[in-house]
Specification:
This protein is an alpha+beta fold. The protein folds into four domains: 3-87, Uridine Diphospho-n-acetylenolpyruvylglucosamine Reductase, domain 2; 94-212, Uridine Diphospho-n-acetylenolpyruvylglucosamine Reductase, domain 3, CATH 3.30.465.10; 218-317, Alpha-Beta Plaits; 321-409, Alpha-Beta Plaits. The chain is 34% helix and 20% strand. It contains 16 helices and 18 strands. The strands form four sheets. It has a seven-stranded antiparallel sheet, sandwiched between helices. Strands 5-6-10-8-9 form a five-stranded antiparallel sheet. A four-stranded mixed sheet has the order 1-2-4-3. Bound molecules: flavin-adenine dinucleotide (FAD). Flavin-adenine dinucleotide (FAD) is lined by residues 28-29, 65-73, 76-77, 88, 108, 130-132, 136-137, 139-141, 143-144, 146-148, 197-198, 202-203, 320, 408-409, 412, 445.
Length: 450
């Protein structure tokens, strides 16, 4: 029997082979493009479907790409020519919310915001909130260890995952972690799979940790600084104090101008170099806000606004769409230690001036995680190559400041060639030993991630 007929015989209508279907499952939201169509897509409905598909791929030496919603920005979910795409998007059941233990049991294809919404009915929340959380899946968030605006207070995806069900390259199903708050039995395989970008196994079911939903007053501030260095001092002061914001975001002058053009709200830097936006929610919110704004003034803020609710955050929330409206863009997600944030912003400004291109930059300031974007005018290869070269300069700078080339989007295929810049040969070899142990034939997301 031809191998594909064997797969179809096992999984029936869950196997798609129509070229239009194949094309629609072949890309993600990044600029990475597939080099050819996959042989088939499996639209899994259960862990058993995933196991059968992986076992088939392993037996027939077929490369597998794993797909949640395809909002990834690193090219990790892009199809391999002649390969197999396994889509988890159909496995989207919230199996149970367990308020007493502050846990939820969900399938890997559940949309992240749906978990938070279901938790809210019990006064709880699922904290990690990537800007894509109304589209991305929890499985994709786990595979990339996604971050978001609220992560400054509650941590990244890894901090909210208690246990996983994973299909290995052999097709076997394993379970990691536990439903307890403490568990020291065995290696911490849960955290090994978190951030592994589909290279070690396919996450099919998840136990997530929930937290009490903050209640009470919501207050937001926006502070303008004459220099990036002054804004950096304010961020360091707030982050080393005992007031913990729900959100702390920094925008440079260029990104403020881009946002104001797209969504006019009277936002202006008025000669300032940077805007810092922060939010507090809860019983101590007003006192915390006073402390934070005092720290901003001490750091040299030239103006500070305060408002109830979310209104001052709106400009930051639309910044991604505003940048896209400027034209195609090539973005980075480098991160640096918080105390080096101002140095990193200043370096981006310098690179922008030297290269003669605008590089609007906003940052999850409390996490030291920046998104500098090179706006690409024109869709030709040469323009892209040049933008990549500029991004490489930004990555090199982040690394020289003790940072990382990716704070939240992952390595995928786009940053794979730069891995050796961050990981020394012995460290990279240790990663590859783990990869080989879990996936000896190298069928799961090969040539990406690690
Ligand atoms: C507008 C926009 C805003 C964004 N904002 C943020 C942000 O604030 N923070 C952030 O971190 N990211 C952000 N992203 C990036 C992206 O949304 C995240 O990386 C997200 O976690 C990807 O989820 P997904 O379901 O779309 O995964 P996909 O894009 O389908 O896949 C991403 C990676 O995960 C792997 N994968 C997917 N599902 C599984 C699974 N079940 N088991 C094993 N591997 C799997 C894939 O193979 C691939 O390597 C944004 C993207 C967009 C388009």
């Amino acid at each position: 029997m031809n191998p594909l007929s064997d797969l179809i015989a096992r999984l029936g209508g869950r196997v798609l082979t129509d070229p239009a279907d194949l094309a629609s499952y072949s890309t993600d939201a990044s600029r990475a493009r597939p080099e050819g169509l996959p042989a088939a897509v499996v639209v899994a409905r259960s862990s058993a479907d995933v196991a059968a598909a992986v076992e088939w791929a392993n037996r027939n030496d077929v490369k597998v790409s794993v797909r949640g919603s395809g909002t990834g920005l690193a090219g990790g979910a892009v199809a391999y020519p002649g390969g197999l795409v396994i889509s988890l998007a159909g496995m989207n059941r919230i199996v149970a919310i367990d308020p007493a233990n502050r846990l939820a049991e969900v399938e890997a294809g559940v949309i992240t915001a749906d978990i938070d919404r279901a938790a809210a009915e019990h006064g709880l929340m699922y904290a990690p909130d990537p800007a894509s959380y109304r589209e991305s899946t929890i499985g994709g968030n786990i595979a990339t260890n996604a971050g978001g605006l609220r992560c400054v207070k509650y941590g990244v995806t890894a901090d909210s995952i208690a246990a996983l069900e994973v299909v290995l390259a052999s097709g076997e199903i394993i379970r990691t972690g536990s439903r307890t708050r403490k568990n020291v039995v065995g290696y911490d395989l849960t955290n090994l799979f978190v951030g592994s970008e589909g290279t070690l196994g396919i996450v099919t079911a998840v136990t997530v940790r929930l937290r009490p939903r903050p209640v009470g007053t919501t207050v937001t501030f926006r502070a303008a600084f004459p220099t990036i260095a002054a804004a950096g001092r304010a961020v360091s002061a707030i982050m080393s104090s005992d007031v913990v914001p729900e959100v702390l975001e920094l925008m440079d002058r260029t990104s403020v101008d881009v946002v104001e053009k797209f969504y006019p709200t009277g936002l202006s830097t008025d000669g300032a170099s940077a805007l810092l936006v922060g939010q507090f929610i809860g019983r101590t919110a007003i006192g915390d806000l006073e402390q934070a704004t005092t720290m901003c003034r001490k750091a040299g803020a030239i103006s500070v606004e305060q408002a109830e609710g979310d209104i001052l955050l709106e400009a930051r929330r639309v910044s991604s769409r505003a940048l896209s409206a400027e034209g195609l863009r090539v973005s980075s997600d480098v991160a640096v230690p918080i105390a080096r944030l101002a140095d990193m912003f200043e370096a981006v400004e310098r690179i922008s001036a030297e290269e003669g291109v605008p590089i609007p930059t906003f940052a999850h300031a409390g996490d030291g995680n920046l998104h500098p974007s090179v706006i690409v005018r024109g869709d030709d290869d040469e323009t892209y190559v040049d933008a990549e070269r500029i991004l490489d300069r930004i990555t090199d700078t982040a690394l020289s400041l003790g940072g990382t080339m990716s704070g939240e989007h992952g390595v995928g295929s786009l940053k794979y060639g730069s891995l050796a810049k961050q990981l020394d040969p012995a460290t990279l070899a240790a990663h590859r030993l783990i990869k080989t142990a879990f996936d000896p034939k190298g069928i799961l997301t090969p040539g990406r991630g690690v």
